[in-house]
Amino acid sequence: MPSPVQTAALLFDLDGTLLHSDPLHAQIFIDLFAARGVAIDDAYYLRHMHGRLNEDIFTEFFPDEDAAQLSWDKEAAFRDRLGGAAPATAGVEPLLARARADGLGLAVVTNAPRINAEVMLAAIGLADAFDTLVIGDECDRGKPHPDPYLAAMAALNADPARCIAFEDSPSGVHSAAASGVYTVGLESSLDADSLRDAGAAMTIKDFTAPALGPMLDRLTGARP
Q1: DSSP state of 89
Q2: Which residue among the candidates 15, 131, 137, 168 is catalytic per the annotation?
Q3: Between 20 and 30 A from 179 (CA), which of 34, 119, 140, 142?
Q4: What is the value of pTM for the model shown?
Q5: Which of 13, 131, 137, 168 is catalytic?
Q6: Does the annotation count 191 as an active-site position?
Q7: 9 C-beta neighbours (distance < 10 Å), count
């Protein structure tokens, strides 16, 4: 558990950030829409669904159906397709080890349902790696609103000026940046320009990026 005087933290989105799950989500949405006579593709998923709460998506596109039930069915299909093991994004384990050694708080901040978040973290071997797990639909408002990130920082007693968030979607970038956190975009599904347009201060390909070392040095005071 984080120290009561914790003032610095790393905050991570999950889908597309800690693991490259977007292709699975996209295909499930494609299949679900096709069953209702609507043809969409990966690009449509990225423009209209990427990073959003399921119930918001289904309320918009299928207002005559039960959005909560559609969300449950969609996420159950995702869990089935994910299976019990998946690779984490390159470099995340050493980054977490460095952060833990430096005494930083660690949080996952996601719009995924809690059951999915727990399954994904277990699949990538990081079920016990974080101090707190914040779920968007358990907050007053999910991403793109700042509430999930504000909740994570409150749980860690962390100062936004001493936090870094990692996000891969416009919705998530908006959420993190609006909370006052320095936001790094992960180029897992979108390019650097798209992430910067959404509000990312910088972008990286994955967690092996050399720029992360100096960033953590500054965060912890190891370097001016």
Answers
A1: P
A2: 15
A3: 119
A4: 0.87
A5: 13
A6: no
A7: 27
